[in-house]
Amino acid sequence: MDTVDKLNNVILFDGECNFCDHSVQFIIKRDAQALFRFASIQSEIGQQLMNAYNVPNSIDSVILIQNKKYYVKSSAALRICRGLNGGWKLFYYLLAVPRVVRDAVYNVIAKNRYKWFGKKDSCMLPSPDIRKRFLG
């Protein structure tokens, strides 16, 4: 496997969050080229990536590692959309909206994700093809 500082297009997600899990499933279904790889923030590889890219532990967001940088909140979500099939690519252009506005919407969802969608006690068991895309 690549060293953590050479990994690209990695999505770090909250492995305990139902909404986050559904978001990963959403991405997998629309990422026909298997561009993205995944790791939970709580995993060892997730923690190694956060340390390698100096991501503050206080970040409560999806994190995208791409081209030796990390992106969080709406910036991560919109950059992920760019890699998806179909009309989802158009959401990438919302990066033109000021980040403070985009992140305000993102923060409402993130703050309420456990209350609205719940927490998981166990992880999904992906098929072998999908399992290859998960790190750690």
UniProtKB/TrEMBL annotation:
GO MF term set: protein-disulfide reductase activity
InterPro entries named among the record's database cross-references: DCC1-like, DCC_oxidoreductase
Name under which the protein is recorded: Thiol-disulfide oxidoreductase DCC family protein
UniProt xrefs under Pfam families: DCC1-like (PF04134)
Sections of the chain in a coiled coil: none
Highest taxon in the source lineage: Bacteria
Natural source organism: Paenibacillus agilis
